[in-house]
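Chain A, query sequence.
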Amino acid sequence: MAVEIPRPDGSLGPLYLAGALRAAGIEVEILDASVGTPEDDLKETFHHRVLQPNGLTRIGMTPERIREYLTRGQFDIIGISSNFTPQTRMALEVARIAKEVNPNAFVIAGGVNGRAMADRFMTTGFVDIIALSEAERTIVEIVRTWQQGRSFNEIDGVVFSHDGKTVVRPTRSTTYHTNLDQLPFPAWDLLPFEKYDGVNSPHGSITPGTQRRYAPLMTSRGCPFRCAYCHVSEERRDDSMAGNLGSLRLKSIERVMKEFEILQNLGVTHIYFEDDSLLAKKARVTEIFRRLTGLGLKISNVNGVNLVHLSKPGSDGQLHPDQEYLETIASAGFNEIVFPVESGSQRILDKYATGKLRHDRLDVLELVNVAAKAGITCPVNMMLGFPDETEGEMSQSIELAKRLVSAGAPYITFFIPIPFPGSQLFRYALDHGHLQPDFDPDQMNWKNAVMVNTTVPPERIVQLRDEAWDQVNTVAYKEGRIAREIRTRVAE
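Chain A, predicted structure.
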């Protein structure tokens, strides 16, 4: 599938850091370069598309406009969040511009990708320090230390250069918050909501004629699983760099309610839950959804769920769809959940996806059917092309996908597993010769099969992915997807 739906960022990471800095009395601004400042025209930012060599589309402020913004702002410190590997070049582009505008500017980087590719970031000479962990505490320490001219050797959980050498300060348990109620409130008020209103594309979802003010929120951090293709897998394996961030940590219901109140006061009507495993604690989630419904807020979507949490054990030893739970979720306005089925092969699920779904215990066809009857639309994600996956195993996934559409799934998205830095799959790919140490991060996107020496050649994997999308999805869905892309272009 060639179409791509861009969306404004509104990332929670910078918002938490901005909240921590403001609480410490430090002045801070947030720039979402995808939409620009209040004086920028969306035609020149969000709707300005430039096709990149890696096949993805760059949107947002031009390098020249970013340079102008930084020059006018005369910022002493510039922080850059880098979560996604294919955006590495653009993150470093901003760092380069910042140094060209002001060689004395102090540039901080962070995020999953910034941490995982710390060596590449530091060797450019454009980045002065990298925060390795959740940085609500670290960012304040970094700024205070820089202001006072002290050594960064006093800070845990950072990478920086000293006398021409890269210094790594391991993360400690005191570096980040284990009690999430102690987190600063994200600085949502610094988001360019008027710009987002103009785009009307909360996380890429466009409903013609309907405007929704959306904001991201997390009720928890971490995940009980450790799938090889997710950064949580490496965070839970080795906590010397990032800390044990993969462990599931929960905010109290009262803390979540306070965040709902803040967003409601900002005119937000739709919430996007950024949790990696939102539905893990049923009683807690049920109470959150009950209160959310009482406020009149709606759920836009969620970042991550695990199918086992939508089931319950039966007397026959099998897992069955939890119809009551699904109905509770639907009654809260949560009417779309992407089901991460991932593979029709149990071997692949066990090896790469923590065995989080067992096809012999949970009938995903029944789950899709029951969810649909409860009023929940459930598109499905599948993955094709793991290093040792055979073509026969991929066919199992494709055949299951066809049956899932027949059971009620509106569409299936087929992804190629990408060994993103910071995941166990990345380490596996390097160790087994599926990726070269000098890999090009620009090529790491779901459109490309970047691993080599795989059981099925990469060219064939791409062919199977494209054929599967075309064969499995309905004509109506494919036409609607293309029409949505056209509507986005017309808005330009």
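The chain has a mean pLDDT of 90. The domain at 12-169 is CATH 3.40.50 (Rossmann fold).
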